[in-house]
Design goal:
This protein starts with a helix and ends with a helix. It has 15 helices and no strands. The chain has helices spanning about 5-20, 25-40, 45-65, 75-90, 95-120, 125-145, 145-150, 175-195, 200-210, 210-215, 220-245, 255-270, 275-295, 300-315, 315-335. It has about 325 residues and is mainly alpha-helical. It folds into two domains: about 40-295, ABC transporter involved in vitamin B12 uptake, BtuC; about 300-335. The radius of gyration is 21 Å and the shape is globular.
Length: about 325
């Protein structure tokens, strides 16, 4: 009788370790991302933007896909980190970009911790309004103190030092893309380790049924505060990356459009498996760039049409079609 719980614990640990192992598809995904550094030298500017958007989407997926916290104002932390990095560089408080990136992320995480207690109160509708209100308040504060933030003109005269004292940002975006991709990959590794840990599993239980999770001894509010703080730090680092790469920061980093685009990215890629934000960022940004080139006036219409198709048809049904098509192609080739 005494060995039964031990056997169950060992089996559970093996199961969790198996789920946390890297799959071949994941290795191919990141190998393709690394290969793009050498294969697509003329696209490094847009690829750097994709890496930043992917990191930003990853931060929202941590709270939406794993904790069930929906936010319409996640740009608050993105913008806060962006302004922190800009002010640190403008006033030469911290010249090293990597160190300034870490400080900006910690500042955004502190803001997320301070506001998490407001976000956790009430229902989903209340959370939507609170998160949106925080972003709007920060935008107006940045606009009001224009002597510090530049107001509507934004922070100007930002000079970003070379990364690690060796890799300077150039106009072609080579160093910017490698820098953004490396940061995104490292933070993805940390997020992947987090969601496959017991803490991540407890977050899934809280999302599924918070009352039952509390009944078995899980501290629901403490876990929601913790993941909200981590997600805010991730968003702040994404905003700081944008400031460091573009050497500019404006009130646009707090805009509602930025938070709305983030939700669109997760709708396209899916939530709750980390890669949804990454894949959605790639598809959204490339689709936006291509459609803006083809139809500059109506590109938003086509993106909206794609989103409506995803909602009406369903992502699972589309995945089934792709699976069937993937099986039909080899069969047709064999017959020919």
């Amino acid at each position: 009788m005494s060995t039964a719980p031990g056997i169950v614990a060992i089996a559970l640990a093996d199961r969790l370790a198996q789920r946390a192992r890297w799959q071949p598809v994941e290795i191919v995904f990141w190998a393709a991302a690394a290969a793009s550094v050498f294969l697509l030298p003329g696209k490094h500017i847009i690829l750097a933007e994709i890496a930043i958007l992917a990191l930003f989407a990853l931060s929202l997926d941590l709270i939406l896909g794993y904790a069930g916290i929906i936010s319409l104002g996640h740009a608050a932390f993105f913008g806060f980190g962006a302004y922190c990095a800009g002010l640190l560089a403008q006033h030469h408080l911290i010249d090293e970009p990597v160190l300034a990136l870490a400080v900006s992320g910690l500042a955004a995480a502190a803001l997320g911790f301070a506001t998490s207690f407001l976000v956790l109160r009430g229902s989903d509708l209340t959370r939507l309004m609170v998160t949106l209100g925080v972003a709007l308040m920060l935008r107006e504060i940045a606009n009001r103190f224009d002597a510090l933030t530049g107001g509507a003109d934004g922070l100007q005269g930002i000079t970003i030092a070379p990364v690690l004292g060796r890799f300077a940002f150039d106009i072609t975006g080579h160093a910017a893309y490698v820098y953004a991709l490396a940061v995104t990959f490292l933070l993805f590794l940390a997020a992947r380790r987090l969601v496959h840990s017991p803490f991540g599993l407890s977050l899934r239980s809280v999302k599924g049924n918070p009352l039952r999770a509390a009944a078995i001894g899980i501290s629901v509010n403490a876990r929601l505060v913790a993941i909200y703080t981590v997600a805010a730090g991730y968003a702040g680092i994404a905003g700081a990356l944008l400031t460091q790469i573009s050497a500019f920061c404006s009130l646009d980093v707090f805009s509602f459009d930025r938070s709305a685009d983030l939700l669109l990215v997760l709708i396209i890629g899916g939530t709750g498996y980390l890669y949804g934000g990454l894949i959605g960022a790639v598809l959204f940004k490339l689709m936006q760039d291509w459609l803006a080139t083809m139809t500059p006036q109506y590109w938003q219409f086509w993106i909206g049409l794609v989103l409506v198709a995803i909602v009406l048809v369903g992502r699972q049904r589309m995945a089934g079609w792709l699976y069937c098509a993937r099986g039909l192609v080899p069969d047709m080739l064999r017959r020919r």
